[in-house]
Each structure stands twice: as C-alpha cells, then as structure tokens.
Amino acid sequence: MDWKAVLYIGTTVVMFAIFAAIVIRTYKKGRKESGEKAKYRMMDDDDEK
Question: Which of 1, 19, 25, 32 lies at a CB distance of 3.0 to 4.6 Å from 5, suitable for a disulfide?
C-alpha cells in the first residue's frame, strides 16, 4: 500500500470513530434525563412564594 491508501483508510477510521462518539453521547440515558429536566424547569413558575 502506498501512503495515499493509508491516509485514506486512516481518515475513514477517524471519521467513523468521531461519528460513533457523537451517536453514543447523544443517545446516552443521562443526556436524555438532563434534557427532560431542563424542559420541565423552563415551565416552572419563577415567582412562587
């Protein structure tokens, strides 16, 4: 293999790893729960006494 093929394969592997990390981070259970908390917190009254 020449260096162009190695660079092409390396770039593909790195881009796939970045994509997989984004998907895992997005669909983690803790991220969804924190998003739900923020959604309901916006609807709370701020002037409760």
Answer: 1
Helix 29-43 with 3-27: angle, nearest 10 deg: 50
Model confidence pLDDT, tens digit, residues 1-24:
899 999 999 999 999 999 999 999
Cα torsion through 24, 25, 30, 32, rounded to 10:
-90
Are the C-beta atoms of 8 and 2 separated by less than 8 Å?
no
> How remote is the C-alpha of 33 from its chain's centroid?
14
What tokens were used for 22? 């984004």
Q: What percent of the chain has pLDDT over 70?
A: 76
